[in-house]
Amino acid sequence: MIDRYSRPEMANIWTEENKYRAWLEVEILADEAWAELGEIPKEDVALIREKADFDIDRILEIEQETRHDVVAFTRAVSETLGEERKWVHYGLTSTDVVDTAYGYLYKQANDIIRRDLENFTNIIADKAKEHKFTIMMGRTHGVHAEPTTFGLKLATWYSEMKRNIERFEHAAAGVEAGKISGAVGNFANIPPFVEKYVCDKLGIRAQEISTQVLPRDLHAEYFAVLASIATSIERMATEIRGLQKSEQREVEEFFAKGQKGSSAMPHKRNPIGSENMTGLARVIRGHMVTAYENVALWHERDISHSSAERIIAPDTTILIDYMLNRFGNIVKNLTVFPENMIRNMNSTFGLIFSQRAMLALIEKGMTREQAYDLVQPKTAQSWDNQVDFKPLLEADPEVTSRLTQEEIDEIFNPTYYTKRVNEIFERIGLGD
Predict the structure, then answer these.
(1) Residues in contact with 9: Cβ distance below 8 Å, sequence separation at least 6, in sequence order
(2) Is residue 157 part of a domain?
(3) Residues 138, 196: one domain?
(4) Domain with 332 in it: what CATH number?
(5) Is residue 416 part of a domain?
(6) Three-class SS state of 289
(7) 141, 246, 267, 401: which is the annotated catalytic residue?
(8) Does pLDDT of 127 surpass 90?
(9) Domain span at residue 200?
(10) Would you say residue 79 has pLDDT above 70?
(11) Can you give the pLDDT at residue 265?
(12) Does the annotation count 304 as an active-site position?
């Protein structure tokens, strides 16, 4: 991933140095397991643990000849050892090392993502509580519907992220796995004890059954969950973009002193952070498709998945880390304009209270059809002539014969729509 969208801690996990360190640890742990079984002299394993090392340039040099990165790696490591070198890669196939190391790297990445998810979700929770009763316009199909609160809008984000966390934990457990089961997964040349020993030491699980590789449906699920997280962020970012439009200006991304919005138009303040999230979500969803394409391998394994995973594993985890942190800061520092929310809510002449008017008439004895047919023409008259809806009700004897002035006034009280807010917050775990 390019530096622009990389945070150092996550990016460092996917360096060549860290990858080869993970490979080496798998190799050494496998030898330790063999030694526990009495198959390898413990003194040789101690020497391997002490002396085994590698030089990346040397690995790449050997790979020019071998055309095989794991063979190049094991030979480069062997060059740093004495007679004990014969135990390097003993009983293993390449993917025993590569897939198990991948599981270890995914675990490292997931620890960061897990922390990111918690921090991001807490930011949303705090902002939701802050604006719990900030009344604004609810919109469906882009059209004014009924009042809601900005806090409720954010509460839906919070609930969605809680679901994402649940999905992530399940999917993360899937890829935090190793396999050391040999060339076709039948443990012909290596006992299951070695697999369990290595995986336990790495803090990952031993996959219960494998071929030459870990089953890639695990990875497909994992990348699908990361895509879901990215898509959730995109949904939230799209909301901010919509609410920041000049004619609405209900929220606005923080705009720093000295920041520029356009090379041509000095007045511009664009929601560039949210737009950035939208673009990166598209990339991650593309990687999800690649992960699904990697599931259908030939027989006990082919290598078609390998080249793709070298790209999607680092890039997707790095991007998710970046998105959660950047968008978290956007939400945390979001400028909210409650006065603009009220102004926009009042811009449609009170038509947003049409359902309350209809229900009030039903409660006074009208059928639903009668009440609907009475109210709808008045909403059309209000909208077409750009006049207030309330006086049209007050001028109709069919209405005033059933509703008092106090009852009509109450129809147009926007706080009516906040009466269940506390209950909803409690339902999703955001109660006081």
Answers:
(1) 112, 321
(2) yes
(3) yes
(4) 1.20.200.10
(5) no
(6) helix
(7) 141
(8) yes
(9) 94-253+266-344
(10) yes
(11) 77
(12) no
